[in-house]
Write a structure and sequence with these properties.
73% of the residues lie in helices and 0% in strands. It is mainly α and 139 residues long. InterPro entries: DUF4064 (IPR025273).
Length: 139
């Protein structure tokens, strides 16, 4: 028996995270300084708080680099969680991996990704507490 709910919710969370935060990371990393200064810098909230546009550009590229690294790690852990939950193999290990995936997303996005991390936490909760006929005792 396949645990469809956990699998679907986890995959939806992963796809949405990659679409929104992956696209943001790639966009910022591919933007040169001149384009950033002309288009993105004036649209930043409280852009006057930065000492210069160079500082803002450096911070944004650093942030998007770290976001990309954490998204990559998140996808790897999500793949393992999906493999463990598939066909009701090891739901408790998958639940732990879903929690790790959500935490990685929260760290990588500095809390901005909570709505998507919530989906991983829901998958983890279902993995731990939902009982299905034929559940294997694991861990």
């Amino acid at each position: 028996m396949i645990r469809k709910a956990e699998t679907i919710i986890g995959i939806i969370g992963g796809v949405l995270s990659l679409i929104f935060f992956g696209a943001f990371s790639v966009t910022i990393m591919s933007t040169d300084f001149e384009t950033f200064e002309e288009t993105l810098y004036p649209s930043l909230p409280n852009y006057e708080t930065f000492t210069s546009s160079e500082q803002a550009y450096e911070l944004m590229t650093e942030f998007s680099t770290w976001m990309g690294i954490f998204l990559f790690l998140m996808v790897i852990v999500l793949v393992f969680a999906t493999l463990f939950i598939y066909r009701n193999g090891r739901p408790k290990i998958a639940g732990i991996l879903y929690i790790v995936t959500g935490v990685l997303l929260l760290i990588g996005t500095q809390g901005i990704g909570f709505p998507f991390a919530f989906l991983f936490f829901v998958s983890a909760g279902l993995s731990f507490f939902r009982k299905i006929e034929g559940d294997k005792n694991d861990i």
